[in-house]
Design goal:
Double-stranded beta-helix, eight-stranded mixed sheet, three-stranded antiparallel sheet, 20 strands
């Protein structure tokens, strides 16, 4: 498979060319490494949308993003019918239109936590990274939700046991629209066309490692079921602040060709918006379906 160089969270896998077909043993080792380190990077990859999708599918079915009405396009704004579950994240415009989502990752979140069956892994591949005078911008931040849970007091762990929280793509959409203005706000009828809200346990058990992880995020979690509104808001804000403490975090500094994979049960992530045009960022992304949280 190649060599692995890693720390408690974050590892680099060396010596792979993902344009080549890997055998099942190599794929299993990559997945085991993902669960051990939560975030892994495979450097110097040159993949088109089909190759990214083919690699991602080795780990399970790919999922569409919640932004279902946005057609998937390549870097020249052309529809890609063969890879509908690969989408682009970019601040680049062509012919007056965004080449990809320009506000993805503004909030801390776990990918597709608003789905009944969220994603177990995300693959993000860097095609262009913003750089000026030798400085690279647009890092991605990660925080370890398992470590955050383990650091809670026994009293808080008991309080959170069996609590369920609402996760909502609709909530996130208009929250972004009103706070950042990079997308249009939607009316109730338009919101109804988006992914329905779902509830998940606040404390989720990882299906492979059995570690308990905090599964609420500022991007999509809107309330806790069964609690008065004020109590729900106060508890969520306390958990949002706790989960992103510096001692739980890792920051990935991008290079062109990086293929980053992360475990959406063990980590949340957030983009760094420290760049503006003419600095360009273009990433292609897919997510692998996981299992129902428990």
């Amino acid at each position: 498979m190649g060599d692995v160089v890693g720390d408690e969270m974050g590892a680099e896998i060396l010596g792979l060319n993902l344009r080549n077909t890997l055998d099942d043993t190599a794929i299993a080792k990559i997945e085991d490494t993902l669960y051990r380190y939560a975030v892994i990077v495979i450097r110097d990859q040159s993949l088109d949308t089909g190759q990214l999708a083919a690699f991602g599918q080795r780990f399970g079915p790919l999922q569409p993003s919640g932004r279902r009405k946005v057609q998937n396009k390549d870097a020249d704004n052309r529809v890609q019918p063969d890879t509908p579950n690969v989408n682009f994240i970019s601040n680049i415009k062509k012919n007056g239109k965004n080449m990809g989502s320009s506000d993805a990752g503004i909030y801390w979140h776990s990918d597709l936590c608003y789905e009944e069956i969220p994603s177990k892994a995300t693959l993000l591949h860097a095609l262009e990274v913003p750089e000026k005078n030798g400085i690279v911008y647009g890092a991605t931040q990660f925080t370890n939700t398992a470590a955050a849970y383990e650091a809670l007091s026994d009293e808080m762990k008991t309080r959170l046991e069996k609590l369920m929280a609402l996760n909502s793509f609709r909530y996130m959409w208009n929250k972004k629209a009103h706070e950042f203005g990079r997308r249009p706000a939607l009316n109730p009828a338009e919101l109804d066309q988006l992914t329905p809200d779902v509830t998940h346990p606040i404390v989720r058990t990882h299906p492979h490692t059995n570690r308990k992880c905090l599964y609420v995020c500022e991007g999509y979690t809107s309330r806790i079921e069964g609690l008065p509104e004020a109590e729900s808001e106060a508890l969520l804000n306390e958990l949002f602040a706790h989960v992103i403490k510096p001692e739980f975090r890792y920051q990935h500094e991008w290079r062109v060709g990086d293929l980053l994979m992360w475990d959406n049960c063990t980590v949340q992530h957030k983009a760094t918006f420290d760049y503006e045009p003419p600095l360009r960022r273009l990433m292609q992304r897919c997510t692998v379906q996981g299992s129902k949280p428990f």
